[in-house]
Amino acid sequence: MRYSTYFIHTLFETPKEAETPSHIFLLRGCYIYPVAAGVYSLLPLGHRVAEKIKNIIRDELNAIAGLEITMPVLNPAELWKKTKRYFDIGQELIRFKDRKDREFVLAMTNEETVTDIAKHFLRSYRDLPVMLYHIQTKIRDEARPRGGLLRIREFFMKDAYSFHRDFEDLDAYYPRIFNAYLRIFARCGLNSIPIEADSGIMGGTGSHEFMLESPNGEDRFVVCTHCDYRANTEKAEGVKSTRDESIEAPPPREKIATPGVKTIADLVQCFGAGEADFLKTVAYDADGELVLAVIRGDYAISTAKLTNHLKAVHLDLASEELLAARGLHAGFLSPVGIKGTRMVMDTSIGKRDLFVAGANEIDMHYKNVLFGRDFEIDEKADIAEVREGDACLKCQQGSLRIGRGIELGHTFKLGTKYTAPDSMDVTYLDPAGEQKRVIMGCYGIGVERLMASVIERWHDDSGMIFPITIAPFQVAIVAIGKNPAVVDAAEKLYEQLSSRYEVLYDDRDESAGVKLKDADLLGFPIRVVISQKLLKENNVEMKIRKTGEVIICAQHALEATVEQIAEKLQPTLEGLPYMAE
Q: Which of 141, 330, 365, 488 has its CA 20 to 30 A from that of 22?
């Protein structure tokens, strides 16, 4: 491909709206174009990258017996109502009516559509297991799209769904998809970190997220410094120290006036104690029910853990009106004296810990509050966010390190969430002729997010550094100067290499500086330069974008040298944290 006839219009200045490296360089390199907030066109370079990522995904899923289909973006609402997700999902799901007043949604995932297909065609145990997948447009009305392609409203998504006779068959298949994900990301140039994850609105019996550690990531995850424990902070657990030994003659509860003192920071200053000496009570509205979450003051409540424990669809902080109806006041809440209100207590609270807690009166707190004497809560669960440095609950030896990351993909063991009688009701006949419930798994990867994640990982001050497997062009040829001999040599090199590689020949009438800067910005793995000076020695100059290494190579050895470099740039699939199959 010749630069002069290709669609590339690079920018020198950083666009004002771009903050993350991937957003900056994709805009500057003419890979994407913004259409609206969170909506982008993939321009020719970006389209080539996306198609290569899709093909890598297809390779790996086809290798584990995946069958590609195409499902529509436009879904009848009645399918989503069967699973209740039509009502459970908020404004992220776009709902509308057609000209015949029939309700539709724009699919953000395709569990309903694929399960409806399964219901009609998977009738016998002989039809199972099977895995269907597609790579299709998804629509999600994000409230805060950010980071260019990292969080957008319209995107390509690889959705895969597996159907099984029982949980044992799903468990046997799951490592195959888990390991395929590791290979997909590795072939795109990324070493992903698989972590235990919360299933969220997808439901199911277990899931993993595949993370790329990045300062621009929206997710937080923990890694044990000693063992292989990895988990999203929404699911992670650490060791909590409590005082369960008996206290002889504990002091009585004492009410103290604390005008204007509401926050833990204010209480610490007022009482001269540590955060762990306070009892924090937070009021939530869980699907219309008032719930008090009680936790030690040095921990933060994990809304994901609390939501899962309550099995709530919507969890929000309780309004002042909801609290006032119960005679309660934000900032002075505690479980002391509360009757008729659901309360959940975190496992950080020991049987013999003495606390300062709210008195459920404005400007009043209690001192020496003791669980079991001053209040009782039967509902106890881990609802705390883990903290940096907490001891690992799994090995009891290491400590937990918290990192930020970008979610590259997510795998779920859905179980019967979508095939249950109160959902899509999907069954099959077993060898004995009995009706059995189909078991499901589902597995997703966002194509544009994966593209952006590669750049978040591989870039420098000059621009992008694409892995050779997904680069829009593997080789860039740059002719320096207008000398006819140089142009003729460049044309011959272009013809020679184009028979084996994807080559972009920069034939523009531009200065050497402009051409070389553009080559670095665009991120092509191998750059070949031909100039009058090099031509006199029958040489070319080669630069490996990933390492910055510059090689002077004889023209006759160019093809062999490119082959050697291309081979070295291929990602390795050895040593990945594969799951035993």
A: 141
